[in-house]
Structure prediction request, 414 residues.
Amino acid sequence: MSKNIQHNKLFVASCLALLVTSLSFGIRAGVLNQQGIDFNLTSAQLGTIAATAFWGFPLAMLVGGIIVDIIGMKRLLVLAFAFHLVGIVLTIYATGYWSLFFSTLLIGIANGTVEAACNPLVTALYPDNKTTKLNHFHLWFPGGIVIGTLVVFLFNKLGLSTQMQVGVMLIPTVLYGYLFSKLDFPVTERVSSGVTSGEMYKSLLNPLFIFMIICMFGTAITELFTGQWIDILLKNVSDNAILLLTIETGIMVIGRGFAGPVVKQFSPQGVLLISAVLAAVGLYLLGHTSGNMLFVGAIIFGIGVCYFWPTMIGFVAENLPKTGAVGLNLMGGAGMFAVSVYMIFMSDFYEKLVAANIPQNTAAADLANVTNEAKKLAGPEVINATLMIPLVLVVAFAGLNWYMKNKKQPEPVV
Prediction:
């Protein structure tokens, strides 16, 4: 690796880029309901807008994973900066459904491009400590959501507009764009180790990799769908629904900060099994309780989903290194694609539940109160349906632990 490579500065810039990604999730979760009111949008339309970010994300990760070894990580991050800048500005000046749709799509593409470049960048910078450093890097995803939700909470209290809340994202965007433009980059680990493109694509057919892709569907939906929709699903159950997201993601920040000893103690596959169990318990409490117990559920759920995303990617980086940047980005892209499909399906499911709980002969004067009660019943039902996913993951990761315990360890890529 070149002496001009400044590991710490590259890592800090990567964290800033991921901060913009997470701010977009946190601020969108907070302003989505208000945008629906401002532009007279239905729950289905709001679900489609939110899902648009998840469409752009896997598309960018897939394309980015293929071209990152060709054009280099620096050029890929310049593209991310451009997409972020345009997407944020268009969101600030949005006038309705389609402008929100396209601006959110651009931000989703930018978010996916950041991960497409930064995941292989982190593994290239820290080849002997991949899972821990990926957890430290991805700490800034929940960290940014905490900051974003607090921005929404504070700005709403001050009576400031949603446009100003979205505009906050411009600050770290400009910072990471400037830093990356000044720094030299290493090549990806796959290139530096001499693994050919043919070997990389052949490794993608490994049954273990395919199994991890399928599990990534479940871990991503459990974490990201719940986080993105928690304000809408529980708004009529709790007066502080957005704070539930803040608590959950705050727990994730702390947990990922201490990922090193946790991963060392339990192994990546052990961490995934424990995470699935706790995520299931947390979702159960969020879907079956009210009042202060909702906050207990948010804490347990936050501990559960804390290590899902970075440990899934770290597991592949450590145990399937020949899959290279394409393997890492297929994992992330698969997760986001699954969330986008699930979000559209469940937003429609939510609207049907609400409609089913509103009596047909409801008087116009009572409609608002009856609708709020219907939403109060529908939100937890959506969470309870999602509970089945981490329950399946418990079984899957129990099998993974058994398999890894009895599997001969592969020789490391030199």
User: Anything to note?
Assistant: The mean pLDDT is 86. The radius of gyration is 21 Å.
